[in-house]
Amino acid sequence: MAVPEIVRVASGQDDPRLADYANLTDVALRRRLEPAGGLYLAEGLKVLRRALAAGHAPRSVLTRQRDVDGVLDALGEREATVFVGAPELLQGVTGFDVHRGVLAAMHRPALPDPSDLIAGARTVLVLEDLVEHTNVGAAFRSAAALGADAVLVTPRCADPLYRRSVKVSMGTVFQVPWTRIGWPEGYALLRAAGFHLSALALAEDSVELDEFAARAPARIALLLGTEGDGLSRRALGEADTIVRIEMAGGVDSLNVAAASAVALHAIRRRAS
Length: 272
Fold this sequence. Notes:
Blueprint (H helix, E strand, L loop, with lengths): L4 E4 L18 H11 L1 E5 L1 H9 L4 E6 L4 H8 L5 E4 L2 H8 L7 E6 L6 H4 L5 E5 L5 H13 L4 E4 L9 H6 L9 E3 L4 H8 L3 E5 L6 E2 H6 L5 E5 L8 H6 L2 E4 L11 H12 L5
Parallel strand pairs: 1-4, 3-4, 6-7, 6-11, 7-8, 9-11, 9-12, 10-12
Antiparallel strand pairs: 2-5, 3-5
Helix pairs in contact: 2-3, 6-11
């Protein structure tokens, strides 16, 4: 019977066993190593539980003594090494205050084929080249809360399984089906599957969101673009409809994650 192995560590920065957790504040480094190494990091016991519930396999866990019982309960009979150290050790290894007390190195699951993922979907969120991990995580949280069936991310979009994305999403990146989609070939794939390409953007020929939602088609792919510049010209040109959110108070636009929540909330009313 496989059981977690508890290993107590007193010093960490030079301990090769803790290499998965070293210098996590270097975003560029993590974006290179995490996908290539086949790992991602789950922060916090709640997030760990959601990752395990989604069928993801742990390699190891780094935690404080007071959180050991919760970690062992979450892991059950799964095989993993549980490294236990003082809070100062966790901070020294990772480079930040691990205030949630738990970090887990998880094996990345294989991503599904986009065609298979969207086969039965009615509402799909497409994230084009978002660069901020916090926005990616928040968009996933919106997708989970407001009824999106799947999320598609373009090749240059920030990693949904990056530590901060997972944390901001509150673990919903494990709940909402997602995958990466080729871009620009993804336009044709979505259209062939019967999706109406709806680009969220400001444009002279745009349709106000409430008006669009009132006559929304059965299957919608909601396209959202990168922070600042928004959707690419190609995406706007490929869109069947450009949709805008009416603003007040002199504000011209919302943060992309906030916009995803507003749009998804309006669109889901078509089912009622």
